[in-house]
Amino acid sequence: MTNIIPLHNEVHKDIKVSTHNDFSRFKAQHLIPVVVQEFSAMATEFPIVFVKNGDTGQFLPVAMMGLTEGVNLYCQQKDFDSAVLPMNFQTAPFSLTKHNQESDEVTICIDSDSNLISAEGNALFDDKGEQTDFLKQRSQFLIDMVSFSQQTMAITQLFNQKELLITQQLTVKLADKPLTINGLYMIDEKKLNELPNEEFNELRNKGLLPLIYAHLTSIHQINRLAHKQAKTSN
Question: Which InterPro entries match (predicted)?
Fold first, then answer.
């Protein structure tokens, strides 16, 4: 449960927020949205694939943290079992809310029911009611994430426009039994290599080729998930 309310220096003057590696709130979410700025780092641990919103047709890159829906293999325990931390894990308990649809102005909000609120955490406001360095840093991170998400949406849309995203069926071996995973999309490497020079150079000039290759290389991490799944089942 969440209780998202605007952050206020009077109402929340005594609130403190802790930072820890307990991300068990994601234990039922096996696909975690990622932004292109973290592709290279995330690809060292997790498969990065794309999923499609059936209502809007928009594609979204996600990191696979489990092989079956509803089970995040990394978040079942309180200690997060990876040195690579998704950016989306680091926003809580804060969020941004637009004043209205026509305005670009935003308000910082906090989930007052979050377990990150602690008497021994980081203060949000000083004695004068001014934001602490901790809150300033977290606020800037939220703003950066909005920008990163917009860039990610635009880049993913470009991949789709060039018809590079194809549905892909992944099969992994679990306890000598194959597990088939559907509903995922990947960059079609064959189509990528067959792009006209002008379109391929466009991707290169925009700096998108490293993102594509990080995504393609990350698919091999599916074996890491299979191994982790097998250990969990034993």
Answer: SapC
